[in-house]
């Protein structure tokens, strides 16, 4: 009898020739998250699954693996020899670890190893009968059981009754790197999470505008990065000192265009950093129509100054849906801390809602864009944030 | 960078001597004052001496001094303890609408529990009218709570007149005074005449945080808030904070010994700051009253800026101030005090509180005025509301 975790990965299994690459990324990440609890963790790639052998406490393992993109299910399992007596006894042990009293169960056997003498239904029947006769307070229900006991007969037999869902997606880093524009708000961390889930390594950038926003707002963004780093491992945060640029824009732009000008400046800076850091895309938390700067026209105006694609995973989401995800991934409580994010001061009374691109260009005439971008880039502060 | 700390109404730097006293209490006299052995008696002695000292500063006796965890606990205990013990005599309690949250929130709780609460209004300078108080006293009134010095704008309430009005109406009504911003800063009513309960906080007078005093007149019965081992004559259980008490005793001694001198110094600094602001910066509204205000508090609105931004701009230059009170600054929203004294939204939004200490120099004030002038001018360019 040996304890292990069976880790299944959904989407990766569909990959063709690249599959070993994805699997390697995934195993690396799994090792990384379990190592702090068990330096001797062993991983084995078998039949499109990963077997994880570790002495780390089960809660720690489950908690860590639940945050590894690429994993669809984690099953804490027990393995035994391929003989029916061993199987029966092990199955009984596994059930006993459950909170079984007053519940129903069924046994579900798969037998890829056809050399095993008993057929699946026979194993179901024998193991089921054995459990029933040895445990009180448990009944059979083959249609809708509370507990499903899975038996897989392969080179060895694996028995498990728990299936912990993972986050799905693709392993971090396997699809490249992107720069995410992180504010202290609710949306941008969620957008960042969603792009991370597609296997993208993220380097967030935060535009700090002290004294118009407090240093606590910066701490808040660092805290958000800590949560996100729980899913990806170490995150490199770039904090741009945006104050002087903001002042220039404030002085030289017609008020109604302030927000658009700010966003264009932010995208330009992010684009530049992306280039330097070898990132291939930008990520923002925009959702269509949520505020004046998130209309099609305004989005087009920000798009124009980017040399690389801007991913907007929340574009079709409602605020409620975004908040739900934020709660689920653990960023919500940090996001709602009351420190004003990016300069609530520089909000025009009547922002231009549908700016024509020629108007935007005209509004920008009096700004030395190049100078401001390099000014922002110069003063960057870097934080390496770990979970 | 030069640092000027002007947030002394939020908290003060612990004085070297007070820190030394606390340190000695932690490392040398660390016994539990309730223990029977010598170590315990040493610690008990510190408390006894501190109690006597503080009593003498208040012009009262040691058996009327109770140590608490600070101003908030003192206020909570005084009000709840009094309301609870006098429940049978009546359920009407009175306070003002510019009290500190540690008073107002307790009144709100009592209101929900069925007490009838009267909140006295203040005039535009933040003073209550004694006639208003006289009018609302009733047969059912059991407690009146009025702060001595307002923590946001510095107005000094007519405590003596209030005490007289209350006691001449009915001497059984308990009178609580939150003196957290007053103790050591202004002359209190001699021998606390007419005051039954009085709160003091350590960290506002250069003692450590986590220690405070509640004065309870010897014939006033109030219910305890914290039960347990029966310390403080059974009225405030819990092992005494000996280091805090030692620090408080020392700081209280220093502040009362030097009060005259420090008061004059702070008054002159405050005047220098006020005059400088009014001279150099246009569109300023003073929220601190011209007369009868504490020597250490100056509150002003810089129209066309926002308090929070100005605060951070000054912070960037090493100057630490606050917008209204630090206790409510995490909650966002405007100051209830400025609102209560009838300040406009714009005035509330652009208010800054400067609170002084004797550590500040004239040079510091000049630096503040100069920096303030620059920053206000800069911010006014951008804040367009």
UniProtKB/TrEMBL annotation, chain A:
Q: Which organism is it from?
A: Tepidanaerobacter syntrophicus
- Where does it primarily localize? cytoplasm
Q: Which InterPro entries match?
A: Rossmann-like_a/b/a_fold (IPR014729), ThiI_AANH (IPR020536), ThiI_fer (IPR054173), ThiI_N (IPR049961), THUMP_dom (IPR004114), THUMP_ThiI (IPR049962), tRNA_STrfase (IPR003720), tRNA_sulfurtransferase_ThiI (IPR050102)
Q: Give the protein's function.
A: Catalyzes the ATP-dependent transfer of a sulfur to tRNA to produce 4-thiouridine in position 8 of tRNAs, which functions as a near-UV photosensor. Also catalyzes the transfer of sulfur to the sulfur carrier protein ThiS, forming ThiS-thiocarboxylate. This is a step in the synthesis of thiazole, in the thiamine biosynthesis pathway. The sulfur is donated as persulfide by IscS.
Its taxonomic placement starts with: Bacteria, Bacillati, Bacillota, Clostridia, Thermosediminibacterales
User: Tell me, which GO biological process terms does this entry list?
Assistant: thiamine biosynthetic process; thiamine diphosphate biosynthetic process; thiazole biosynthetic process; tRNA 4-thiouridine biosynthesis
Q: Name one GO cellular component term.
A: cytosol
According to UniProt, the name of this protein is Probable tRNA sulfurtransferase
* Domain THUMP as annotated: residue spans: 59-164
**What compartments host this protein?**
Cytoplasm
> EC class of this enzyme?
transferase
Q: What is its EC number?
A: 2.8.1.4
Q: Note the Pfam families from the entry.
A: ThiI, ThiI_fer, THUMP
**Its annotated pathway?**
Cofactor biosynthesis; thiamine diphosphate biosynthesis
List keywords of the entry alphabetically: ATP-binding, Cytoplasm, Nucleotide-binding, RNA-binding, Thiamine biosynthesis, Transferase, tRNA-binding
Query: Keyword Endoplasmic reticulum on this protein?
Result: no
From TrEMBL, chain B:
**For the Aminotransferase class V domain, which residue ranges apply?**
4-368
Among SUPFAM superfamilies, the record links this protein to: PLP-dependent transferases
GO MF assignments? cysteine desulfurase activity; iron-sulfur cluster binding; metal ion binding
What Pfam families does UniProt report for this protein, alphabetically?
A: Aminotran_5
Query: Record keywords: Transmembrane helix included?
Result: no
Cofactor(s) listed in the protein's UniProt record: pyridoxal 5'-phosphate
Q: Which domain of life is it from?
A: Bacteria
UniProt record similarity statement: Belongs to the class-V pyridoxal-phosphate-dependent aminotransferase family. NifS/IscS subfamily.
Protein's recorded name:
Cysteine desulfurase
Give the species. Answer: Tepidanaerobacter syntrophicus
